[in-house]
Structure formats: structure tokens, C-alpha cells
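Chapter summary example: a protein plus manganese (II) ion.
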Amino acid sequence: MDHIRNHLKNSRRVLLVSHVNPDGDAIGSLIAMGLALEAMGLSATLCNASPIPAVYRFLPAVQRITDRIDGTQTYDTAMVLDCGDLKRVGNRLMEAINRIPIIVNVDHHITNTGFGHLQQVEPFACATAEIVYRLIRSFEVPVSRSIATAIYTGILTDTGSFRFANTNRAAFRICEEMVALGVDPSKVAQHVYGTYSLGRIKLLNLALDSIEISNNGKLSLMCLSQGMLQETGTQSEDADGLINYARSIRNVKLAAMIQERPNSGTHAEGEGRYHVSMRSDGTVDVSEIASYFGGGGHVSAAGFTIESTLSNIKSEIMGLADTL
Ligand code: 5GP
Ligand code: MN
């Protein structure tokens, strides 16, 4: 902690970035840390390569997040949040970050590659927002209601509303403190879980219909195509959380959701680009499986992106059922 605080005390201009297809932790951590650095008197640029999902657009200062950086600006420090691998920021931003003298890596993925010059990587933290909270406390700046809302949202969403295996004492302790600082839990929950588009609910219907289960009942598989997104007028952000339905089936130890990425038809015969999300009941380490395929994550939530045919990916994943 102190090594990062001491470095920042000598910094002026910081570029903050989190992972593509951001979730509540990636966005909440970005906002909380950005506002805290400003409270320390630094200049902070908040950046994410992907659009911000509609359900997170209520967050304070969210409009400050930009998807491109001004080439004329220089930064002395890049802070990369919630990324197990620097590539997770997206290729364009990775090139920009690699030109910045000091890279700070703040993350909670067990598969973190240890990139950067300064690290605060805590695999037992429930969310990157938990680590961000402790860093901000070490900076000794006041935690405003805006910062508190961002931290609360990061912890709430990454723990699946305090249900997933990463839910720890810190999750409750920090969230209690954030509520004391003015966060309204029902308002946050209403934005995050109660403002879905009708299309998203229709997409859920298609996703549920796609569920296949292995012969031994231990593995469930969901598939989402670009056609399904078009049919329901949704975007890939609307697929967030759907995998939890596949995970919640009795006896299922491992659930996977294969999601077709846009423009995936431009590849060799029948091949496409797919993102595979995996969730386990905690008895299977899905971060290991994801790492094998070039991705990463946590013991019970991980993912990877692959170029192959859908049938190859499906049979490869279904083949895992016998090992469960
Ligand atoms: P999801 O697959 O649901 O997007 O992500 C599940 C978890 O795995 C998240 O913590 C996410 O950051 C991580 N993850 C997903 N895809 C990748 C990937 O391609 N590389 C790495 N290192 N982590 C990933
Ligand atoms: Mn996270």
C-alpha cells in the first residue's frame, strides 16, 4: 500500500484504466480511485475501451470515463484496475499504457500476471474495489458520497450481492461504512438489478432455452449468438449475469456460457470469435481451465476468448464434464 501512496505523492498526471466489457467492479474502482486521486490534487484521466453498460450510468462522475486518450497529453503514471493481464485493457490502450513510465497494477485475480512496476494484487480481496478502498484510506483523503457509491457498487456486483464464494468480512464491513457515508442500498440495487430493458428479459428467455446439460448433470452450457442480440435488440452487456441461471441448477458444478463476438464471420471456414464465461460451485478451479485457453479469472468465475468453431468449443467444454 505505502509504496503506491509514496509514488503517487510524487506524481502529477495519472491515467486510470480498467478492463474491456467492464462490470460494476471495473467501473466502480475506476471512478473511486479517479476521484480520490483528484482529492489528493493530482490530475486523473479515466479511461475504458468499451461502452459503459446502461445499468452503471447512474454512477457519479461516470461521464468522465472516456474511451480514447488525447495523444497530446502525457502521463507519469498509469493505474490499471481489475485486470489480471495488461491485455485486458484492449490493444489500443495497452500500447498507450506501455509508453507511460510507471504502471501500477491494482487487482484481485488469482491469475494476475504481475505486470507493471508497482503492484497491489490481493487474490483474497472480494473485489478490486476492496483494495481501492484500502488504498484511498492510506491516502488519507475524505471518502465522499460519490466515492462511497462507486466502492459499494463494485463490491455489491463482484460478490453477486454477497452470495458468491469471494464474499468476505471486508465486503460487509466496507459496505456498512459506505452506507454510513450516505450510500442508499435500495437505490443502487434498483439501478443495477431493476432497470433491465424488455429486450434483456427476452434475451434471458433465449439464453435459458439454449441450456444443455451433460449426461452426468454436473456441467451446464448456455450459448448466445449475435443473431439473438439482434432479435432482441440487445448488446453484449445485456448478457452479463445470465450465466448465473445455468450455474444455479441443482448438482451443476461448472456452468459455461459461450458468447459469439461481433464480426466473428470474417475468419476461416466456419470459425468465429467467442467469449467463454465459466462459473463453478467452488469445487472446481475455473481460473485454471480459463488460463489453459489463454484467459484467466478467479477460482469460481473466469473466462477466455477463443477463435474456433462453435461445435469445437461446445464439445471441448462438454468433454470437461467427465473430470468433474
Ligand atoms: P466473464 O467471463 O464473466 O466476463 O468474467 C469472469 C471473470 O474472469 C472476471 O473476473 C474477468 O475479469 C475474468 N476474465 C474473463 N475473461 C478473461 C480473459 O480473457 N483473460 C483474463 N485474464 N481474465 C478474464
Ligand atoms: Mn473484479
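Key point: The chain has twelve helices and eleven strands.
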